[in-house]
Amino acid sequence: MVKILLVFGTRPEAIKLAPVVLKMRETGDFFPVVAVTAQHRELLDQVLEVFNIKPDYDLDIMEVNQTLSDITIRALRGLTQVIERENPDIVMVHGDTTTTFSGALASFYNRIPVAHVEAGLRSNYRREPFPEEVNRTLTSVVTDLHFAPTMLARQNLLQEGVSDNNIMVTGNTVIDALIKALKMVENQDCPYGKLSFCPESDYLLMEVHRRENWGAPMREIFLGVRDFLVSNPDLSMIFPVHPNPLIKELSLEIFGDLPGVNLISPLGYLDFVRAMRDARLIVTDSGGIQEESSYLKKQVILVRRVTERPEGVESGFINVSGVERKGIRKSIEKAYKMSYDSIVNINNNPFGDGTASSRIVAGIQWFLGISSEKPQNYLAEGG
């Protein structure tokens, strides 16, 4: 039986790798070993519980006020010890976190093949998003098997010199997870977790947290959203506030006096899926929400300067607003004025069909010689 070490540390990574773990359990070919660094302790644990995944190793590396260098050092040391003990046939990492890069580098140093899920995303700006753009680019350098979510991600890898034989286009596993989650909450309505009541009107859902937006950009984002809400009092807002003290303090300063704004603690995964499902608009700097919104047919205002997911912009669901106050308000107003019919009639979901995890498992089987046929690349609707 083939031993696969799956490494992740954040909530988004757990959401996106959980379907792969579950799919591996269904086959008789794999023995999946899960190692978590717990970059996001509480948020990570909640997702693992939803998908009934118990880590075999929990490095629990987080400490108060530690730097990116601290995280890298602790993750690299801890994952090296796990790899040396388990001696897996292949190590699987996901995305673009510090855990991703550390896991890939530890595997490379131990001469273990690396499989990278969600490979090939590029903003082409080294510091946006920070540090994710560099993390995923460096991870690609030591990766042996690249699972690209889209054909554009594949093209990025080809342009960087990666052999097409080492790339498989699978769709994004976040859609696999979202479909499972939607079934779990199919007959569940508001209230959502920490929100003890149901909004009586349409609401805007906001989720912002990215490191490059801390400080002045976050203030501009909040002020732009506030301007929109003040001029549109019929729309309320649900804002699960990131635990970062800087974000919490600023959110109270900017939104504390607005009656329609609900500042709440971070929602669990299933609660957040329900909140996305029922929202009128979503304001975010998240990566995964860009993908989920396309499946849910929701307008997203992306409060960043660039996106590594231009497919969502082309599909009509993602609106890149920048991080200036006026531009943010303008982008929200434009999305808000779109009719419901014009949104739901967009028939282009570029990010997946819910079977990416099956393609990934088939790709591993091919790579390790369990099967002789390389899986076909996923082509999105209209692709």
Automatic annotation (TrEMBL):
It comes from the Bacteria. SUPFAM superfamilies: UDP-Glycosyltransferase/glycogen phosphorylase (SSF53756). It comes from Psychracetigena formicireducens. This is UDP-N-acetylglucosamine 2-epimerase (non-hydrolyzing). The gene is mnaA. One of its GO terms (molecular function) is UDP-N-acetylglucosamine 2-epimerase activity. Gene3D superfamilies: Glycogen Phosphorylase B (3.40.50.2000). Transmembrane segments: none annotated. Its EC number is 5.1.3.14.
